[in-house]
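Subject: Sanity check before I submit

Could someone independently write out the structure tokens for this chain? I want to compare against mine line by line before I put it in a report. The sequence has 317 residues.
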Amino acid sequence: MKPTLYIVIPCYNEEKVLPITAPLFLEQLTSMQSDGLISPESKIMFVNDGSKDQTWSLIKQFAAENPAYIGISQSRNRGHQNAVLAGLMESKDKCDITISIDCDGQDDITVMTQMVQEYLSGSEVVYGVRNSRKTDTFFKRATAEGFYKFLNAMGAEVVFNHADYRLISAKVLKEFANFKEVNLFLRGMIPLVGFKSSSVYYARKERFAGETHYPLKKMIALAVDGITSLSVKPLRMISSLGFIMAIVSILGLVWAVVAKILGVAAVGWASIVAAICLLSSIQLICLGIIGEYIGKIYMEVKERPRYIISERTEDQK
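---
Independent answer below. Compare away.
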């Protein structure tokens, strides 16, 4: 029996690019149906993440013109990760597999065929991984690759050069639904579910239209979210740093006593001020890291909904 596929596409202020990429997604869906890989009941699900432009109007227009398109709209902007989650959770009981992908056209849409083939060969999760960053500037390439290396170094296990382009089976999604975190970092959470996985590789393209929604500032915020949501290594590093500074302080105290006895104690305040500033800075950094974790706990214990769907195109038919 052919699996039913739902392509989940988060959208935020994408009125410029959607008219270009929506037909491409439909063409790929139709191609896979013609090849006998997926069911004719497969759909393209757009998730409007509280867009302020005409994105939702376009999605409703697509859905009215072709039943292969469906859409859901969040009640407000909740961020990319929440939008992807909303689409996955809405799809898990309606299909056999999902593929999440951004709507900007940068990820190679044709790789979906390989993903489905990997699923048919036994993989429950298939990661779309970039094999090249030739289209990126040196700065973008360096920061992006540094992002993945830093995450792994901090204990957040992620697939290198993989973002949120992946196939997930309904079996995995039903288990993933038991993960109740409010602070989402999907590319680090999905591997935690387990099951057989594989990767397909592709070259990423330039964005078709519009502007990127992931500048350096958001990448840094995403890295912080990923590390603090998936790893306690920074807290252990603080403990290690405290232990090291304690040893240094003891050695400094011993040196001061010996220097006083020998009468060679240095006179001056510069070294004292420098030491105080250094220790104060370390303390503030440590408090900041601890505060980040406390903030995460604060958000988790409130158990607020991770997404709220205000409209569905299916309800308007």
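---
OP: Matches mine. For the report I'm noting this point. The longest strand covers residues 125-132.
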